[in-house]
Records
---
Amino acid sequence: MENKNVSLKVTATILSMSLLTVMAGAAIAPALGIIKAHFSEADGLLVQLIVSMPALLIIVTNLLFLPISRRLRTRAIATTGLLLYVAAGAGCFFVGDIYVLLFMRALLGVSVGLIMPLSTGLLAYYFPPEEQARLMGLSAAMNQMGGVVATLLAGLLATIEWNYAFLVYLMGLVAVVMVWLWLPDEKLGSANKRGIPFQPRQLLKFHPSVTGMLLLMMIFFIFPTNFAIIARQQTTLSTEAITMIMVGLDVVAFFVGLAFGQMMHTFRKSVKYFAPAFFLLGYAAYLLPSELSIPNSQFSISFILLGSASIGIANGVGVPYLNTIASIKGGKNSATTVMPLLSAALYLGQFVSPLVVMPLSKALFGNSLTAPYKVGILLCIVFLVQVWATRHFQSLPPAENGK
């Protein structure tokens, strides 16, 4: 019983870090309009970089994670990352210059780059393969919960003053205390003698999961970068209603993450296709009202709700599935090999999504309002082909209790 309690404390500590990682950009998104108004004389690109700047530094830090893990133990890495997370995130509250603000956001990216590989890789380090599907599902669920809490709380704080939104990063202090109390002090990098994680042979070994994560994030981020704009022009939905639909998508993904362990056992042969298939259903549902010339009515709003729920399911299944398969293949070295690569692919997908989707939309579909959704469907087909071509080489863990 004592060992079980220790295991629960370790698990809770790791999951607390999962709660924080998505907040790097999502926490500030609701306040971006207010921030833009405050820095009205600044270039619009600089304001957009407030959200995207952390992603670039997360990628760089992820790719340097193995050398860092060879010099520092897990508790030191986690503590450094979390303290920097709180200082760089909440420290923006005191900043009045946009260039200093961007520098602080870059430091926030470094902090998440240290935290994120631990938030998934330690699950592979401490727990056997048969438990990892359930735990990766919980990790993804906590990530989604972090997005919901951060979005609502930051939006509320921003109504006081633009800089109050950054106080949401003080949530990291809870994880700091949990790390100090319960996280074991391991030396992860010393067990991995295979060099840096971004060597060609490492990419070759883990390319199905890494490529899958890149495609998944590129497809998913079509939603947050386009949905509010398109829905506002297509329907009579209020801004508040659109916001609630977007938050509701995260809620759907949260519950799917909680159920993911059971889904892996129930749909062992087909779960690999769930993410691309539900993304395809989601963007097709968004397209149908305009393609069928359905008038602006409750019927067309039903398609929007169906599409949002489908995309929530796809995201809720896709991330833990890719993490689970990769952690099984990476074994105890996952935290220093494949998890930094997956984290880098995740944030690279977020960053390049609009850079790829918008030019393709104009080139293939002109000025059509729903062109991004059409590109999303094309990318879903690419994702399905990638899954079919690579996932049959992947092996799942044995089912629990002989299931």
---
Amino acid sequence: MVALILLIVILGVLIFVHELGHYLTAKNRGAYVYEFALGMGPKIFSFKRKKETGDPTEYSLRAFPIGGFCAIAGEVDENDGGDVKLKKSDYMCNKKIWERCLILIAGVTMNFITGFLILFISGLIWGSIEQTSVIGQAPEGYPIQEAGIEVGDKVISIDGKKAGTWDKITLLLMLEHEDTEYVFKIKKQDGSIKDYTVVPIEQVDEEGNTTKVFGIGQDSERHRGIGSALKYAFVKSGSILSSMATIIGSLFTGKLSLDALSGPVGVYSVVGEAAKTSVESVLYLMAYLSLNLGFINILPFPACDGGRVLFLIIEAIRKKKMNPKVEGIINSVGFILLMLLMLVITIKDIFKLF
């Protein structure tokens, strides 16, 4: 129950922040906002500010904590909802292209800022671990040490793919690999650069799952201070986003299967484990999810904010607006595909529980 409540709170905050970005930017650019809602489904509670404020927006809390929305007039055209008589300039679709882009990317921008701030605060409170790819642990008897790689050496790349952070190293070692050998390009402590061939040990657990063991780890020393916290937030944010890009690319190339992805059920399990560990773990998970939400939403895929920005770019090139019906159909198809993907991932997550 604690994990479920925590998951609802985390997702609620991240969705609120995302929609707040759309809301504030739409208001700033003079677009009319019908409703700002947290949650989906029937309304539980709603209100409007006093008329003296000049704010016509309805603020509501809805029954199901699985999303939220900011209903802006004219997101597609002047016939997309609302029975209020508005001026032409109140509709988002009549704003300049750059203004519409600004409104659309404001949500993901807020998610990126939120993720960064959480990491910064976490670094201030608990300190931060070095994120660069300097090897902090290489125990004897394991492949990394036996190959000749030492503590203090820095990993430049693995099989030709850049590995500037520990997140990237972990991800590259997790991807499907054509053979048993991994080529590590290493910068030695004396500045020289050498290649090392590493053959991991394969361990099989009781359930028959195979794990590759390299015997490599990062330094666990924690660094304190504002400077270290800022560096940690910048590097970690960039590392998470870079890893997300690699994951998306690997899904298309087949180097990563859908089993590696998690839906609501998988995230629920992770939240439960994080809650048992520490507040720091919960905050890190929140930052990670915030950055992931922003990254996924900015992809140029129909139904995502990035897909709608893509339509605006096409409009700017053609110097002609997209047909609202065509755009609506494309976004609907994209939404259905995303829901089907989420369903498949959720079913896989459920099977993993048993």
---
Amino acid sequence: METAKTAVALGLFDGVHLGHRAVLKLACGQRKNGLIPAVFTFEPQSVSYKTGGAQGFIYGRQYKHRLLDKCGIERILSPEFEKLRTLSGEEFAETVLKQQFNAAFVCCGRDFRFGKNASCGTEELAEICGWLGIEVQTAEDVVCDGENISSRRIRTLINEGNIRRANELLGEPYTLSGEVVDGNRIGRTIDFPTANQNFLSGQLVLRYGVYKTVTCIDGTRFPSVTNVGVKPTISGTRAPLAETHIIGFSGSLYGRTIDVSFIDFIRPERRFDSLDALKKQIHADILQCL
């Protein structure tokens, strides 16, 4: 029995932003022709190859796949970059698109590159796929303020703390989804317990500071305030993490996965002379999040 034919969206899809969603929409639109919407992408760590290590990835594998599912994608292939980097354009089309996906349709953005040393672009894709009987369509650029929406642009905004603008280009709030880990429990001693989340290895870290956020726990949304940084008021050296005080929630979250969506930047992270001064500032931060 022949494997079902697919419509494959090609790209890294870091952030699954509005530009990416234009590509995904083309693949999902092929349902009317009996094709299964699919995505070929790479693991998030491959962003380091694309940016020369200058910036991390926006979303980890699990949350990225959640967004792709939400957009209507039914099948995802996401290998490590190293496993395919030596394939020529022809080999990629034959082994991945034809053999693994049984693709009848592929789509991508105008800047999509593939093949060893990124030697092929959209013209080569159309030519090679033409030999294999695969239709190719290139999505129109999605432009905001005269500039194409891109993951690179969004990473820069997140680095700068301009989360409101980043969210506009993403199409929904930037979200840190991950397990709540144990911390030093300082928040409890000043009556502001926090749910702490680590960033993944290689993941982009937001500008250090305090953010207005919304936290989703088992489908229920709570207003919250999140500090991203290294706790400069507390002595010692530590990796950056996100500490979220969830307004109106009580109970233990250790070991559970929560989604913290960032809405607005409130202030930069700073060192306070005492825990009492920190407590006073957190109270003021919370008032801005209600």
